[in-house]
Amino acid sequence: MTKDLLLEIGCENLPSGYLDDTLAQVRKLFEEGLKTERVPFGEIAVTGTPRRIVIHVRSLAAKQEAAENKIIGPPEKIGVSSDGLFTKAAEGFAKSQGVPVSALSRIETPRGSYLAVVKRIKGRPTVSLLKERVPQWVQAIRAPKTMRWNSSGMRFARPIRWILCLYGTNVVAVKVGTLAAGRSTRLSPLFEKVVNAKSIEHYFAIIGKNGIILDPKERRDAVRAQAADCARGCGGALVEDEELVGIVANLLESPVVMAGKYDEAFLKLPREVIVTALKSHQRYFSVAGARGRLLPHFVAFADGARRNTGGIAKGYERVLRARLDDAVFYYREDTARPFEDMAARLRDIVWLEGLGSLAEKAKRLEALALWMRSAGRVGTEELDGSIRRAALLAKADLASEMVKDGKEFTALQGYIGREYARASGETAGVAEAIYEHYLPRFAGDRLPRSETSALLALADKIDTITGCFLMGLEPSGSQDPYALRRQAVGVVRILIARRARLSLSAALDRSLSLFADSAKEPLRDREKIMAALREFYSQRMYAMLRGDGADHDLIAAVLASSWEYPVAVKDMADELSASRKKADLAQFVLAMKRVTNIIPRALRDGFTREAGMKALEAFSSGSYSDLGISQPLFAVDAEKNLAREVSIACGNLLDAVRSGEVERSLGILRGIVPYVNQFFEDVLVNCEDEKIRDNRIAFLASTYRVVMLFCDFSQIAGE
Length: 719
Description:
Blueprint (H helix, E strand, L loop, with lengths): L1 E10 L4 H21 L7 E6 L2 E10 L5 E9 H4 L8 H9 L8 E5 L2 E10 L4 H14 L7 E2 L6 E2 L3 E8 L2 E2 L3 E2 L2 E2 L3 E3 L7 E3 L3 H10 L6 H18 L3 E2 L3 H8 L5 E7 L9 H12 L2 E4 L5 E10 L5 H27 L3 H6 L13 H18 L8 H10 L21 H9 L4 H9 L14 H20 L13 H14 L6 H15 L7 H22 L4 H8 L6 H16 L3 H14 L2 H4 L4 H13 L15 H23 L5 H6 L2 H10 L7 H19 L11
Helix pairs in contact: 1-4, 6-7, 8-9, 11-12, 11-15, 11-17, 12-14, 12-15, 13-14, 14-15, 15-16, 15-17, 16-18, 16-20, 17-18, 18-19, 19-20, 21-26, 21-27, 23-24, 23-27, 24-26, 24-27
């Protein structure tokens, strides 16, 4: 027999940002809990509002499923004698389990035949289980911050005020903390209206009749649709903002829309200042007219049907006016003097404790961006002037009245800097770079458009990551307070999108040098920090390429090389993926693995880029003796032919490295595959002649070092 189960956890208003995660946790806890307890059920629907979390389990069995518990005893060869009688070991095991020796059975395991006791466990009534487990599952729900509100010691995101629990039409006597479950639910925002639910169907009828929307998606759809209709009623269109839709939907359980307005004089403020004032502080939607220009109207919500919506809207307007008055004051104060004056105040603002001021950071941004412009051959020297000016002013708005000290408009940094730069007469390129150097700000965000913006964005993110690693502030587990992972992905995305021939390792080394130049003491563990930084960026590259659909082994193989250019890593991974799809990767990989596998491990371990470049340059110039290889000892045509082809390939590979066109490497290396295969057909590497054997291994080891500059083919699986 089955019945539906309904559990409602009523609480004081949960923060908007807590609700989605709480519902996800509840679903997982109840699904896994019921499966663990062997209670069959149909499906679980978990919905909720800021004031109630609702779990509806359909077709929940009235009883646990029975189970068998197998307790393994001694091996059969120890528990049973040669004449088939149970030994003392078997009798002792049976006694310890409270069964006669005749109840022992034989079971087969991977280790052989064992004696065992099979105990059948009867299923308990589901209601009895729920009384025990529901309080445990509720108390297992986690939140960023929790509260304790009575003597029970229970913690939850907000105080729990009631519990409703019905199995069919009957109350389940669950007790959570000091609260005993019943059939009562509360409906008004102040919990004043209490209604008894006769059944689960009656509960949902009550909820629907009172305009409460339990499903978060339905609530978001309702907020979005009501807001759009209201904006049209104001003569404009809603400024779409899915984040705000989600926030508002998680603040309400019965959304009621209303329109408000503000003084048209405020429209002289920059657009995002107004939008931010409406969104960040009041959770209002902006309304725009033709060409996206804001109209002096807003859309807001209240919770539950209200008689005096006009009075509520007037209250919203008064609060908003105070916010916009603040913004006008900040804007006038900030634009009353040249924007450059704010940059001068950065020397008094600490960036990170131990790493100097924002003015010092601005100096490093300038130096690193200029170095990257030159090293990466980005643009011409004509860019240098705009780079210097943009670097000087990039962080200036952090000293503004609008942004500084964590005031209401802190999120406008970059944007307000651009507006102030324009107002102060800076060039369009410099003003745009001040805004765009923060891009991308989140996954899917657009990238900087101009070369100046891109260089400044790279410099800022690399400088922040390097500085945090120097101070031991690298991400740990799920903790990443300075958003370094996001910034590293931004660096990689910019370099790939612009197909930049800029060595990331060289840029990281340059960034470390800039910190070292201003440090009071020499940097300690520089090589260790450099290795940690490189590994950090490799992890971000891996995550990004996996997200693009590349196979794990192909990405790992490319990243195991001494890669320098993110764009080359992506190109190599893409080409390997395409080759695998065309089923022509196997022959190539096998040839490369034959080279790798025959080399002693001692010659493979500790590979360095320097060793690879030395081999590449020596082969390309024919200077075999520099690698400890004697060409006269090449006794077989196959090894002479391979040596010739390796030299030709290395000349082409060296050109590719110097030009930054490393993606050509795979095609070049393919050319030596027939000669590698012929070499292993005709040549006995481990021959009896020690000199010839050592010479062949030295030649193959140097070839391996060249290949490792581009890809570690030994990590490619399944070919």
